[in-house]
Amino acid sequence: MEMSYTKIDLNEWSRGKLFKSYIENMRIVMSLTVEIDVTNLIEFSKRNNLKFYPSMIWIVSKVVNTHDEFKYSWNDTGDLIKWNFISPSYTEFHKEDENFTKLVTEFSDDIFEFSERFMVDKEKHEADRAFVENQPLNFFDVSCLPWVKYSHFDVHVFDEGKFLAPVITWGKYEMSHGRYMMPLTMNIHHAVADGFHLCRFFNEVQELINALDGGNKDVLD
Q: How far apart are the C-alpha atoms of 186 and 29, rounded to whole Å?
């Protein structure tokens, strides 16, 4: 995909006044954690020889790219923009030294293509630590805490309060009443999204996982 964006005219944008109010007077970031049933995703990944981590990254990336509210940012001259698509900037943990690599894999609408890209990028940067250089600007943040099943998680971005992209995290999945349940968290700036949009994200993540069916790619289109 070609990385491009559209400049936003606040006077023409239906959310322009709300956005301006939050950015100028009340810079709020909302955080919500919801338990997601990932049983279908675990089974789908196993049947198709996919790793759970990139599969889950694809799930959230697919939903994020469905909605404009998650694709806003700023260009280098300070203009508000909307990317045509955004890719996940995720952490790859290294047990041997307890450090991580932070890298971006370009989003694809196809889970199998994305997983292949993920594995190539992972191998390419296996020896790197911290943030990989020259990462694309059209990104959102993803991380995972697979060691604990939490009930709440919050991330504070200490900039000027103008970071607009989603920050998404999930924890350990555990069996409960015959299903694998996992905490999923999103942080998002109130200037670009409301509680409605936040809730829709979780509902659509669950719907997409529920639609997975034994390798039939048609259900993912």
A: 10
Q: Residue type for 190, please?
A: H
CB burial of 57-95 (b: ≥16 within 10 Å; e: otherwise) equals bbbbbbbbbeeebbbbbeeeeeebbbbebbbbbbbbeee
| Nearest alpha carbon to residue 217 among 75, 77, 108 | 108
**Which of 156, 177, 189, 190 is the catalytic position?**
190
The residues facing 196 across adjacent strands are none
Pairing, β 174-176 against β 179-189:
antiparallel
CA separation for the pair 19, 155 (Å, rounded): 21
| Three-point CA angle 83, 86, 91, nearest 5° | 145
145 close to 170: Cβ distance less than 8 angstroms: yes
The single-letter code of the amino acid at 56 is M
pLDDT in tens, 2-57: 779 999 999 999 999 999 999 999 999 999 999 999 999 999 999 999 999 999 99
- Can 197 be counted among the known catalytic residues? no
Residue 106 CA to residue 39 CA, distance in Å, equals 26
